[in-house]
Structure formats: C-alpha cells, structure tokens
Amino acid sequence: MIHPEIERTPASTITIRFEPDGEEQVIPKPNTVLQLLNRLGERPGSVLVIREPQRQDDDGKRRLLTPDLHLRNNEIISLRRVTSRG
User: Fold this and answer.
1) First vs last C-alpha separation in the chain
2) pLDDT in tens, 1-20
3) Between 52 and which of 8, 65, 69, 76 could a Cys-Cys bridge form, CB atoms 3.0 to 4.6 Å apart?
4) Which whole-number Å values give the CA distances from 68 to 5, 13, 34, 65, 85, in the listed order?
5) CA proximity to 20, closest of 69, 62, 83
6) Phi, psi for residue 56 in degrees, rounded to 5
7) In this predicted model, what pLDDT tens digit does every residue of 16-29 receive, in sequence order?
8) Pick from 45, 83, 84: which is nearest to 66 by CA?
9) What does the angle CA 23 – CA 29 – CA 35 come to, to the nearest 5 degrees?
C-alpha cells in the first residue's frame, strides 16, 4: 500500500496529434512506433509517423519514424494519414 503522503510519479506519456484534423490525445507511452500503431488500430504504411522537435538535439526539424524506432517520454508525435488516389 502506498503511503498517502508519498506523491505518485506520473506515468510516461506521449502526445499524439492527428493531422490535418488537429485533434490531440495524450496516451501512455508505448515502447516502439509499431506498438503505437497497433494500439491506434493503424497499419504501418497507412500513416506517416512524425516526431516533432522538442530538444536541442532535434535541430528544430521534424523526423519521420519507422516502425522499429523507440519512442521517448513526453514527446509529441504527429500522425498524417496517407491516401492513394489511383
């Protein structure tokens, strides 16, 4: 049992931005991009997964992520649906 005076540590989360809708969700952080896609019911290749710059080492650039990459705590990820018109 946790003592009531001990403050709980917040769980690791990430913020998901859905483009172009602009909707945002904060969810518990999955380990990888593939786990994120599975949790959201998306297939790899159906959305672009983009890491938004937040740290100095990001050089202010957005980065495309592949399904095998690990996600960071408290980061912002944009998802942009990919559609094909044939």
Assistant:
1) 59
2) 444 544 444 579 999 999 98
3) 76
4) 40, 19, 6, 8, 28
5) 83
6) -60, -35
7) 999 988 899 999 99
8) 45
9) 90
